[in-house]
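Researcher: Quick test of sequence recovery. Tokens follow.
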């Protein structure tokens, strides 16, 4: 039986290793000289990401450095021990730093999960920058992407997706990358099961009643139903974010610049002008 790391390429080569490398290549996630902080939450996704990045750093022709960063936002001793044990099992040497984010988010009352996420993201950016890194890598995968598209449409009245990389708005020079962008969640679960690995779920007491987590569960259940009659539904949703036809949209915006299909409809133009009409916000 191959080692846990080798199983990524030898057993799950087509479903994990190839798709991981395709994400890195197609979206230009790693450039020569990058210093990347892989952010480890302790769940299956971030642990797989850490192992993939460790393997890539060893074999890649692109010179880059990688650090492994794990935040302890207030875990119980048992949860922290589980994370530390899994890191040893995977051969990952991570900096584990303690914060009080769980308790800070819990005090807000309303939507603590949202605040927890914001606080964690800001902490990761700042800590990675202090470590000399110019990028942080998160473990979001293909299913996260399509679920985000549907959540935006059904609950947020907007059409947008989770990008494979983006610049930080608050930490100049820092980027976020998602190297598991094309890897499916079921394949990550298959890898963990094959190796007999048990990772933590969300280890706080904030998420059980959080609206965001409940909506994501609804989307997951909806996708299960849709797959029964349309096995290609996942890829169709994903590709819908690549095949946007601006000429077929009621309105759209790029930053503060807003456009509406009526702007130049009378002239028969296909390129729309800039507007700030109230109709866009209805």
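Model:
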């Amino acid at each position: 039986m191959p080692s846990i790391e080798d199983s990524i390429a030898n057993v799950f080569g087509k479903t994990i290793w190839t798709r991981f490398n395709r994400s890195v290549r197609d979206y230009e996630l790693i450039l020569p000289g990058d210093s990347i902080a892989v952010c480890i939450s302790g769940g299956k996704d971030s642990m797989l990401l850490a192992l993939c990045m460790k393997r890539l750093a060893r074999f890649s022709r692109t010179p880059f450095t990688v650090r492994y960063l794990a935040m302890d936002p207030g875990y119980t001793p048992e949860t922290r021990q589980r994370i530390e044990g899994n890191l040893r099992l995977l051969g990952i040497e991570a900096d584990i730093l303690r914060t009080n984010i769980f308790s800070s988010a819990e005090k807000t009352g309303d939507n603590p999960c949202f605040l927890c996420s914001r606080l964690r993201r800001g902490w990761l950016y700042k800590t990675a920058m202090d470590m000399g890194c110019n990028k942080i890598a998160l473990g979001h995968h293909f299913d996260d992407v399509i679920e985000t598209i549907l959540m935006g449409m059904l609950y947020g009245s907007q059409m947008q997706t989770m990008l494979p990389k983006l610049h930080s708005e608050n930490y100049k020079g820092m980027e976020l990358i998602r190297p598991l962008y094309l890897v499916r969640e079921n394949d990550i679960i298959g890898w963990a099961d094959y190796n007999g690995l048990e990772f933590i779920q969300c280890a706080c007491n904030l998420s059980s009643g959080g609206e965001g987590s409940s909506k994501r569960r609804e989307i997951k259940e909806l996708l299960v139903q849709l797959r029964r009659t349309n096995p290609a539904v996942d890829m169709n949703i994903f590709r819908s974010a690549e095949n946007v036809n601006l000429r077929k949209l009621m309105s759209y915006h790029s930053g503060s610049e807003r456009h509406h299909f009526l702007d130049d409809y009378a002239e028969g133009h296909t390129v729309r002008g800039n507007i700030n009409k109230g109709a866009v916000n209805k």
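The first helix runs from residue 4 to 10.
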